[in-house]
TrEMBL record, chain A:
Transmembrane portions of the chain: 20-38, 181-202
UniProt keywords, alphabetically: Amino-acid transport, Cell membrane, Membrane, Transmembrane, Transmembrane helix, Transport
Pfam families found in the cross-reference section: BPD_transp_1 (PF00528)
Protein name: Polar amino acid transport system permease protein
Lineage of the species this protein comes from: Bacteria, Pseudomonadati, Pseudomonadota, Alphaproteobacteria, Hyphomicrobiales
Its membrane topology: Multi-pass membrane protein
TrEMBL record, chain B:
Primary localisation category: membrane
Name used for this protein in its record: Polar amino acid transport system ATP-binding protein
Localization of this protein: Cell membrane
Bilayer topology: Peripheral membrane protein
Domain of life: Bacteria
Species name: Pseudorhizobium tarimense
ABC transporter domain: residues covered: 10-254
An annotated Gene Ontology molecular function: ATP binding
Entry-linked PROSITE patterns: ABC_TRANSPORTER_1, ABC_TRANSPORTER_2
UniProtKB/TrEMBL annotation, chain C:
Chain ranges of the ABC transmembrane type-1 domain: 27-215
Keywords: Amino-acid transport, Cell membrane, Membrane, Transmembrane, Transmembrane helix, Transport
Organism: Pseudorhizobium tarimense
Name this protein carries in UniProt: Polar amino acid transport system permease protein
Membrane-spanning segments: 12-29, 35-51, 91-110, 193-215
Similarity comment: family membership: Belongs to the binding-protein-dependent transport system permease family. HisMQ subfamily.
Highest taxon in the source lineage: Bacteria
Length: 221, 259, 230
């Protein structure tokens, strides 16, 4: 198999995969914080809405969601570019899981911390943004890391709605060359490499989050 | 309402507090004069910490009336004694500070920021001014050199001293101490007590202290109240209570804690 | 299997009713695939976990690498790999088995971590106490380690089962006719995707909710008296 002909295609596909993944992670994180905070602080109506969002996007299969938005939405007059659909659905999916992470971390902030904030007369927003979230974010980081890797892996499903990502490219090359073993091995290795890059990036972010305002790792005394 | 004429800064009248079916405070009456230093003693579960937590608005109560500096906890138009709006409660909280048994410093903030954050955010003080005051307070508790440390890097006694500075930074008129030394190793108790002793000399500051340190209570308080089963069984000057307690329960309790 | 069926697309309700039987057939395929995949994941995951604890460095490191690789690459590509490459080695499996195997492989990577965590959480002291009582290695696992590990392991395993059920639609790309694949085929023939896809989504949602509730009950029913969980 002559790789020189296919390498640019593979790299291009990997680029699309990375773009979709990063965009989904960023949008997903915004959704996660928005709905996660609503779950905890939203009052009965808003927290129920947030609950519905998380349950729907966590409870229905991602592939079903992708097809639903890809095939079904145009029928009711809404249509996006496939790549937009792909990113939005992946982001909403990640956001659903992320919102649960945010909710869990926020509710793990101890009542003692909340009482201290109350005794100092912080209002709800100050308590949330100055006391709870900074402590909760540290707790969220490992789970968010897993979610990011998960999003990268799941991004391969967008190939099924005709987006030319890495998996889609691999399929095309296989159809041309019929050399399944090589092309899928290379593709798996590419994904593995991207996962490693993502993990390193997450470690760096985690390090920054810990060091900046938050807990030094080692306690003496 | 006119507080200059009212000698009492805190007034509980017929306050009843229940946790489910358990009545913790039963038609509780209690008042504290401005600047008075009052120690609450008694067996655990007798309701003394609940008094502090109600004052700090950390716990609701079901019946009765409570006023602080002339302001009722019960908001006019509210349905029950504690159906007050958050806005109303925040006004009350402006007058009260609290030091917790487990310090409850904010772990993600340095010592200095722990002390500065609330004056800046809540009182709207300029950061520079708040920091200058914070450093003075940290000097008072002997920890100015630890300003850039995080709470986990401090001993329990040091953390509690920072917590006292943090509470004082809000200029409370009433300062509540909820067993401030109970979570400390014995050798660290002294440093915290000496900071509280210094505060007790502040003429205008009203202090309510729940503690098991009887000798200290005797030394700093103007008045000692013995709690049992949600009521004050006996109260009076420290020398009376510790010297010649009249109530049988008080005698039993003191005998058990003084050994 | 679709020939000979007629769908009444006049209203969404009649459409739903007319496709429901076929979607439910798909549901059984979905559940069977998840069950088979999960069985593979449970067994293979345990194998991975034990190999990972091997004292021979080459074995434990190789296992660690394989687990990491499986965890960090997409199920879809693994599925294509198995489906298109295995026949090159003379292994020709029915699509259903290939799919179950792919699910099982990917999730074995997850379950091996669960086993490992569960076993490690029991702690050294328990091993030492068992040694002091002169229990054999088998007895230690059977009477000391496993009973303490189970309440830690079961909830996580349950969550992976639910996650796996939701990933089964991927098998439709290798012609396994599970629920979503059927919904898509119906959509292709009627040009009406909204109802079948929504129906499948709702069934998944229902499945997830039921499984979570069942898991919750199972968790409560587990014998865990006295075991310090975290």
């Amino acid at each position: 198999m002559d790789w020189s002909a296919y390498l640019p295609m593979i790299l291009q596909g990997a680029g699309v995969t990375m773009t979709i993944t990063l965009a989904s992670i960023v949008i997903g994180a915004v959704l996660a914080f928005f709905f996660g905070i609503l779950r905890v602080e939203g009052g009965p109506v808003l927290s129920t809405i947030a609950l519905c969002y998380t349950e729907v996007f966590r409870g229905t299969s991602l592939l079903v969601q992708l097809f639903w938005f890809y095939y079904a939405l145009p029928l009711v007059g809404l249509s996006f570019e496939p790549i937009t659909t792909g990113i939005l659905v992946l982001a909403a999916h990640a956001g659903g899981y992320g919102a649960e992470i945010v909710r869990g971390a926020l509710s793990s902030v101890s009542t003692q911390q909340l009482e201290a904030a109350r005794a100092l007369n912080f209002n709800r927003f100050q308590t949330l943004f100055r006391i709870s979230l900074p402590q909760a974010i540290v707790e969220m980081m490992p789970a968010f890391g897993n979610l990011a890797i998960e999003t990268l892996k799941l991004s391969s499903l967008v190939s099924l709605i005709s987006i030319a990502d890495l998996t889609f490219t691999a399929q095309s090359i296989r159809n041309l060359t019929l050399d399944s073993a090589s092309i899928y091995s290379v593709t798996l290795l590419c994904y593995f490499a991207m996962s490693l890059v993502l993990m390193v990036a997450i470690r760096i972010i985690e390090h920054v989050v810990r060091r900046g305002d938050v807990f030094p790792r080692s306690a003496h005394s | 309402m006119n507080e200059t004429n009212d000698p009492h800064i805190i007034e509980f009248s017929d306050v009843t507090k229940r946790f489910g079916i358990l009545t913790v405070l039963d038609n509780f009456n209690f008042s504290v004069a401005k600047g008075e230093k009052v120690t609450l003693i008694g067996p655990s579960g007798s309701g003394k910490s609940t008094v502090l937590r109600i004052l700090m608005t950390l716990e609701p109560f079901q019946e009765g009336k409570l006023t602080l500096a002339g302001t009722s906890y019960h908001e006019p138009g509210g349905k029950g004694p504690f159906q007050a709006s958050e806005t109303h409660l925040r006004q009350i909280r402006n007058h009260v500070g609290m030091v917790f048994q487990s310090f409850n410093l904010f772990p993600h903030m340095t010592v200095l920021r722990n002390v500065v954050e609330a004056p800046v955010r809540v009182l709207g003080m300029a950061r520079a001014e708040a920091e200058a005051r914070a450093i003075k307070l940290l000097q008072m508790v002997g920890l100015a050199d630890k300003r850039d440390h995080y709470p986990v890097q401090l001993s329990g006694g040091q953390q509690q001293r920072v917590a006292i500075a943090r509470a004082m930074a809000m200029r409370p008129r009433v300062l509540l101490f909820d067993e401030p030394t109970s979570a400390l190793d014995p050798q660290l108790v002294g440093e915290v007590l000496s900071v509280i002793r210094d505060l007790a000399h502040e003429h205008d500051l009203t202090m309510l202290l729940v503690t098991h340190e009887m000798r200290f209570a005797r030394e700093v308080s103007d008045r000692v109240c013995f709690f049992d089963k949600g009521r004050i069984c006996e109260q009076g000057a420290p020398d009376e209570i510790f010297g010649q307690p009249k109530n049988e329960r008080t005698r039993e309790f003191l005998a058990s804690v003084l050994g | 299997m679709m020939y000979g069926y007629e769908w009444d697309t006049t209203t969404w309700l009649t459409y739903t009713i007319s496709i429901l039987p076929i979607i439910l057939i798909g549901l059984t395929v979905t559940l069977k695939a998840a069950a088979a995949g999960f069985a593979i994941a449970l067994v293979l995951g345990l194998v991975f976990a034990l190999l990972r604890r091997s004292r021979v460095k080459v074995i434990s490191w190789t296992t660690a690498f394989v687990v990491e690789f499986l965890r960090d690459t997409p199920l879809l590509v693994q599925l294509f790999f198995l489906y298109y490459v295995l026949p090159n080695f003379g292994i020709v499996l029915p699509a259903f088995l290939t799919g179950a195997l792919a699910l099982g492989l990917q999730y074995a990577a997850y379950t091996s971590e669960v086993y490992r965590g569960g076993i490690e959480a029991v702690g050294r002291g328990q091993w030492e106490a068992a040694t002091a009582l002169n229990l054999t290695r088998m007895q230690t696992y059977r009477d000391v380690i496993i009973p303490q590990a189970i309440p830690r392991i079961v909830p996580a395993m349950g969550n992976y089962l639910v996650a796996m059920i939701k990933e089964t639609p991927v098998l439709s790309v290798i012609t396994v006719l599970e629920m979503m694949g059927l919904a898509n085929m119906i959509g292709e023939r009627t040009f009406e995707y909204l109802v079948p896809l929504t129906l499948v989504g709702l069934i998944f949602l229902l499945l997830t909710l039921i499984c979570s509730a069942g898991l919750h009950r199972l968790q409560k029913a587990l014998p865990k008296a006295g075991i310090p969980l975290r």
